[in-house]
Fold these 3 entries.
Entry 1:
Amino acid sequence: MLYQEEIMKNIKMTILLTFMLALFITLNADAKWWIFGQSAEEVTINYLYLNKMPFDESSTKITVYKDSLQNGMIVINGKVSVKKGKIGSVKVSIDNKESWTDAKFSDNGSFEYSFTPLQDKTYTIFIEIMDSAGKTNNIEATRKEVIVSGENIQPLIKGILDNMIDAYSNEDAVRFMSFVSSDFAGDEANLNTAIRKDFSIFDNIDLKYSINNIASGSKGIFVSLNYTRRVNATKTGQSFTDKGTTEFVFKLGDKGPKVFSMKNPLIFGLSDSPNVATGTLKTSGSMIVV
């Protein structure tokens, strides 16, 4: 009983800290946690995504898959801050600077650009943000080569996620861990322990998800997904629900893709998120509070 109460206290603290971190990142528009700019620069990109995949965490050359594109579109969105004045323009080149197209942007620094790509064509992307004084961001830091593949990879990734969720819901740790890479970034042993703790704290685990995007590069196969979750607390029987967006990275091996890393908010192993998750996704989704 005392052991279970201690675990519950740890869960509460972990989720509270995770929530506070996500909230801090959301509110702090000037968070300098990636490569694009430093606080001394006149124009700084605070965050930048391609189909919900962070630019800073993806490879210089990435492959996106036609079957996972929402409405067949590549969507680039982000947020920028300027040291003085206002944002004058946001332009995107998808042909290695041969031409530029204006992107939509708002006074708060948010911007978005989308286009319908052709299969098997390589797009060399750059983004230029200029303030009213003519200062720009580090344009070269935004370079990304993107090719659209017709390979039908979504069923493969979906099959792995379905099997992981089935094993997790049925509290089968051995089967669950068979889909995890031996060099899992959060340490394979930590994840194994964490999911077993989840099993002792939660009953009737019900997880549903939809895939936002799948892309691959030198760092592995990136997967962004939305999820909804319902669980019952083992101790009280109380039901909890939450929803949000999270990210996985799979690495290819002899036996196919296996999970290499997961971000907060976690859908697996949340009883020890500091030792399981690799980073925290900026999200507006809610989280379980027990």
Note: The first strand starts at residue 43 and ends at 50.
Entry 2:
Amino acid sequence: MRTQSSNIAPFLLAGALLLVAACKSNPMLPESVVTGLRVLGVRADPPEIRPLQSTPIEILAHHTENEELGYLWIACDPVFDVEPGSQPNSACQDEASLSSSSGLEGLFSTGAARPLSFDLTATSATYLPPTDEQGTPLDLFADLPADDPRREVGASITLVIVVAPLEDLTAMLADPEGASLERERTEIVLKRIIVSESDTPNTSPAILSLLVGPAAYLPGEAIPFDAAPLIFEPQLSAPEDFEWHLPDGSVSQETEQPIVSWYSTAGRFGSSRSLQEEENTWTPPRTGDVPGPSPTGEYPLWVVVRDGRGGQAWAEFLLR
């Protein structure tokens, strides 16, 4: 039996947030233009773990009004049916459970969901395996036969991360009945971590640098620009070859196809997404654009790469 925490009550009324849907970009703007509150990425490193293994998770979120953000970190572990070949399930995958306060309370009261952190200011948390009532870590695969193919196929640990202005989260937890979170000021994101016994678990990609013409910029560096568009080419770690284990026990040989997503607070990209070795163009904002030119002449640039298997990386630059 999994441990149930008596300190979980404040999280139950996160039902006041109800899953209002993540990814609320302004429909009048390209997805690459960041306004208000946006969650741009969530990464676990490593993104695939073995039973009883932990992994750190980090979130990339930005608020264009510079409001201090708060975070709730919730985990749902997969549950396996002992019937061979049956698919694992997670209570956090049930939309009905996530869309009402009573449903969310049920997740916590049964131990299906558990908090990963009680620090509302933490932009990172650590996934730890569930424990029994004595605090002993539990092997999620313990009841599976040794030759069960699901050990190699793996299962998804579901993370639910709620992001909102810190003052809003604090008020809701202090007075659950009298306060609520506004959907316009709240992001709720689902992140999957794979748990398996694969001998070749997935690892995270890496952004090595960003080419702008002949110059290479490292993550965190400032990139100068004038009125002319900039042409970017990200330099990434080599995509991995991997074996894709199918539920029937067969194996498919595959190669990752990383996708690069581009974000900034102003200006326009030629494409909001590109492939690994594909160039992309950024045109600086002009008078009359929405959003228009910044008074400081500076714009953050975020480059987020996803490998298609749960691995993720990002880098931030400053366009100046």
Note: The two ends are 55 Å apart (CA to CA).
Entry 3:
Amino acid sequence: MKKIKLLLAISVVAGTLSAQNPKVNNAFNYLRKGNLSKAKDAIDEASEHQDTKDAAKTWFYKGNIYLAISASADPEVNGLDTAALEKSYEYYQKSITIDKEISNDMLNISNPFDGIKMVANIWFIKGRKYFDEKNFYRAYYCYNKSYEYTNPKDDNAAYMAAICGINYDNTRDMKKDTISLAKETKSYLVGLTNRGFKDEFIYSTLANLYMTDKDTTKAVSVANKAEKQFPDSSNTLLLKLSVYYWAGKTADANVLRETIKGKYTKNPLVFFNMGNILEKTNFEESEKAFLMAIDLNPTYFDAIFNLGALYFNKYVDIKKNASNIKDDAEYTKAIEKSKEYITKARPYVEKCYAMNAQDYNTLFMLKLIYANSNELEKVKEMDALLLKIKK
């Protein structure tokens, strides 16, 4: 009698299993036929039933079905679950935790590991779409997902996430957008530089972020890492020069400056960038650098303009400091000295005007020069031109 009862119990269990296994098999068949609505219904039921909810096959198939839903070009199919792509990753992961060897060669995605790679790739493609649309926040989210889902981690996804984070923070409306991606961006940049990713931009960006944070040690460290990665790059050497001056490593910076000047004697862009780096810390060397850039390229608009601006700013600084001088003779001497620099500035800015009469910054700078020289008619002329450009 006991044996009969045992056989009856086994038959009940077998009946239950056979009732549920078809749900998994039906889901598989519906998936292969492209009937994703029925495939979803079948696999959802199987994944909740006591007898099949712990089977690796159930979750592997569910991952494939939800991935197919997310990738469908049919809006109705997409609407079956708007979070299908995120969920497919979770389902693949769950199948792996149950059985790492689960697979089915009859499916295009024959194992959950390939499924996860596909999920990551789709997120990357989505990121590119949003990036091209300049929707940097959404692009960042997609690239971040792509990076999160890859193993080993994909540095290309990390790089694009960082680029999106930088662009988003640079273009967001500070009054409206409360979210900043600076912290996450910095984390990506740190990881990329630690892994020796070959792109100079990430080193310069990270160094600038550290300078903004006033973290001298890390800024110098990144500049030195950059030089090891790109020892023959003028951009990297200029980055290091900028960081060294900023960090107060003046002696080392001066030696590096002379090295750069000797190495790139015929490159006006190098001298232009050097002039920009030095303008706040070493007026004389900045002046020399801009003059060298212009000497190498007499029609170098940006170098000509920046030299004029350097002289004009020097004029403003001297005049501002003169207001604190109480001695009349010293005050007069300072004012006369300031006039030397506005006189120097004028021909360079006027040359820029001759080269491009529609450049707003040039017109505005000339207006300031004429205003400080009491040439009111010329000020009116510049105002009229500026008004036309604004319109």
Note: Residues 2-33 form the longest helix (32 residues).
